[in-house]
Amino acid sequence: MFRLIINSSLPAMKRSAVASGAYHRPLTSVPLRNRFSTTSRAYFYPWVPGSHTYPQTAEWHVELSNQDVEKLLKDYDPKRVEEDFMCRAEGPDEMGNIVLHVYRRYTRGEQLRLQIATQDGRARITEITWETFGPSVQAPEWRAKRFAIEICREILGCDMKGAK
């Protein structure tokens, strides 16, 4: 009985517009995989701060080696499902400043931002900005710095010898 129903509808499917290829037009736009970036850098949808964000900023003076700066400039796009964070570096600009953004993967919310200044062939982190839990619950500075060190060491592979 089931086979009879399937076989009776098969000729109609062969004659349909979809099966004949009428809807299979060549793409006139750029394919999705190449639409955002032609470089090897990772692409993330922009983080737009909203009313639910409560960033906090502090100064931080950590010297970075040239190898660490090279590793920070390479973006990190997670490939496995269990990886929670992605990293994107902006710069260096004309002044030699670099900004490293750390986003939560699924919410695309920025969790951490490191300002990095380069002068005379040396680089150092000058400022850290992190997301707190709300207007009444503030995340301590030491926890944000520890989180930044963990991200840089474990995900990006930096040494960060001067970080405490």
Automatic annotation (TrEMBL):
The name on file for this protein is Uncharacterized protein
- Provenance organism: Colletotrichum fructicola (strain Nara gc5)
